[in-house]
Design a protein that fits this description.
The protein is of the alpha/beta class. The chain is built from 2 helices and 8 strands. The longest helix is centred in the middle third of the chain and has 16 residues. Strands 1-2-3-6 form a 4-stranded antiparallel sheet, with helices on one face. It is about 25% helix and about 30% strand.
Length: about 110
């Protein structure tokens, strides 16, 4: 059954991994993707890169991952700098209640 899409038992879950400075999306217990975060000199949360494993492409996992990560950052009161084009694109299309967003160009 190689190449056949696998049906997933559980909904994907997103967790914050402070040890690796990233939010991870898990599908059936496996890390299917992540979005990195760092803190800049101004104390803002910079999001430089998002990656979803090619085996999981086309399932909307990137959007789920970024939506949950941004919602968590909003709850924490963080100001986000969306350097990652995927995160910036998500923010251009979706409102995240309570999230403070800074331009990547602003220093």
């Amino acid at each position: 059954t190689e190449g056949v899409p696998v049906a997933h038992d559980a909904a994907p879950t997103v967790t914050r991994n402070d040890e690796k400075n990233r939010y991870e999306i898990h599908v059936d217990g496996a890390v299917a993707g992540y979005t990195l975060f760092t803190t800049d000199d101004a104390g803002r949360t910079v999001m430089p890169h998002t990656k979803v494993d090619p085996a999981y492409k086309g399932q909307g996992l990137g959007s789920t991952l970024v939506a949950d990560a941004l919602s968590d950052l909003a709850r924490r009161g963080d100001e986000v700098v969306p350097q990652c084009p995927f995160v910036a694109g998500y923010l251009a299309e979706h409102e995240v209640p309570g999230l403070a967003v800074a331009s990547p160009d602003a220093e």
